[in-house]
Amino acid sequence: MKVDIKKLSIFLVVFNALMMFKDLPMSILGSVLLIIFLSFIVTHKTLRSFFKIFILIASIILLKFLFKTYLLTEAGVSLVMILSALKLWEMDTESDHFNMFLILALLECCLFLLNPTFIAFFLGIIKIFIFFYFLLKIRNYDLTLLSGKRLLFLVVPSLFLSLILFYTFPRFTQGFLSTTNNQLLFSGADSQLSFKKLGPLNLSSKIVFRVYGLNAHKFPFHLLYWRQSVLWDFNKEEWRTGYLHFKSEQLTSPGPVVNYNIQLVQDYNEFLPVLDGVTRLIKSNLTYNFYTEHSFRLKNISRTSVKYNAITSFKEIPQILTPLMERKGLRLKSEQKEKIKELILKNKMDKSNLSDNEKFEMAIDFFKKRNYEYSLTPPAYSSLEDFILTGKAGYCSHFAAAFAYITRAIGLPSRIISGFQGGEFNPYDQSLIVREMDGHMWVEVYLKNIGWYKFDPTATVAPGRINLGAKSFHDKVEPFINLYYYQLPKSVLEFASFNHFSLWLDSLSSRFDTSLINFDKDKQQQILNSFIPKSISLGWLFSIALSGSMPLFWFFFSWLNKKKSNPNEKRYKKFIARLKKEGVEKLPHESVSSFRKRCLLKTNSLEDYINTETNHYIKYYYERSSDFKC
After folding, report:
1. Taking all residues of the chain, what is their mean pLDDT, rounded to a whole number?
2. Cβ–Cβ under 8 Å, residues 364 and 453
């Protein structure tokens, strides 16, 4: 099969670009596709050189504009993507092909750095192997080098040495792969809610975090609430967090507690999700701040893997409402505040002596009478007041923002809780998987003598969203997939075996992430302590392992590459050695016939022996020349 190495390179570059479209700006991916397109149009050698220099300079300027600094991981990956596309302009010589192989290998490493999963690792190995195979084939190299036996002898000792170095090499960061914590924070982080930007909801099955240790508690997992950030400030158009004013020491969890471990999967983490209750973090691989609103925020926004151990008690404890909290919880800048307040309290004659409980019941009653409907495709609303007064369709973000507005309008401090609700249990690794589609918002209202009281407006509008879980409810609300003018039932595409396979694959990816990507110093020490005395330091162990394995590695390959002696070659060399003892030494470049004649002239007694050995040599030399050479 004849393969164009340039077309194969283009396919791999475009394939990797598509795999990175969620991690890199679209302008970078568009630039890569434009460079590939120009490689077919610009054919003049001088013009090509000019274009390459111009594109490279323009790309460096673009990276500075997009990322502000070249030290970000995304900036480095973007540069490698652009270099791989520019290299496609030079694919003529063997050296160009080999350089492209090196760039593609670096590109695969970059892809794995942004997406360190088992699938990315496995696909990267396959892509590099395919390119290397066709590179050898196109350049007419001996493909027997890739025979199964030879690969086995090469891979097994290499893996052995890699494992020794992997488990003994000292760790100085959180894991085997680590990037700087100060990365880009994409818009859409749970630190704000812009009501004008709320539109059709695009459900994503991307995993946000995994929870371990809950299986022993027999929870109805689809009913669990996961608290992440708290939105206090409202400035007519959007809600924002107000955490900077409420930094505090962690509270002691009252009553029985639930102990669990969380591993964040999604990039660009800022807030740490925990069970909604009184929570304490016992251990975390990154530093964080705790706030009296019961939220945990990392001190440095991170795209590295975050792992922490938490305990949560569901027993409520009264919280003191400070004057600052009260001001923040009641702040409501709106021209229609009084109008909405009158609509809520219009049936009450004495509005000044209402208790908090009475106000709260009136707020719920007003909210129910609006007859809101749950929809993933609501229309755009000009403002939050517009939705409260005239809107009908919405989802949890609309309902939470509206109810927080309503309670503030009648004098009840309130705040929006952004987090997740539900999750899917994975029986293969006993974890709870929480995805982006499980994202949820609810409200906490401060009531005297009770404290912050949780209320979920979505449960009032669409109880099925809470009782069924996100996926089951959304499939029930919208059971069809629109394909142009046709509607395809979602049930047609759902197979139990496929769902089990995806859960098994997710558990495999989780083990890969835990055992390899996040193999940190603590895990390393734990494993090594089970094999070696604690008195031996890690540095000495690494030195001993390296100095001991390298000679073994060298002896193994020396034995593997040792040329096996051919019996015919050995016989011929023995014949030459015996004649040398008789005083007849074979001259360099002397033919067999000439050598035999000289031998017969000087040693007549060995005539039969000389004829037999030379004839044997001639027979095997001319008929089986691949056996030996002399």
Report:
1. 77
2. no
Name the one residue in this structure whose structure tokens are 């046709």: 486
CA–CA distance, 277 with 253 (Å, rounded to integer): 9
Q: Are strands 431-435 and 207-212 parallel, antiparallel or unpaired?
A: antiparallel
**Number of C-beta neighbours around residue 546 at 10 A:** 14
Instruction: Cite the DSSP H helix spans in 187-336.
Output: 323-330
Burial grade of 108 (CB within 10 A; 0-12, 13-18, 19 or more): buried
**Among candidate residues 462, 471, 476, 466, the one with its CA nearest the CA of residue 394:** 462
- What are the Cα distances from residue 175, in Å, to 262, 516, 519, 520? 16, 8, 5, 4
**Confidence label for 175 from pLDDT (cuts 50, 70 and 90):** very low
Specify the pLDDT at position 629.
44
Tell whether pTM > 0.70. Answer: no
pLDDT for 177: 39
Listed in sequence order, the residues at least 6 apart from 72 whose beta carbon sits closer than 8 Å to its beta carbon are 180, 183, 184
Q: Where are the domains of the chain?
A: 5-143, 192-490, 567-623
Sign of CA dihedral 430, 274, 200, 462: positive
Q: From edge to edge, which strands make up the β-sheet containing 306-313?
A: 278-284, 306-313, 258-264, 207-212, 431-435, 424-426
First to last CA, the chain: 38
CA 354 – CA 360 distance, rounded (Å): 10
Contact call for residues 213 and 460 (beta carbons, < 8 A)? no
Contact assessment for residue 191 and residue 379, using Cβ atoms and an 8 Å cutoff: no
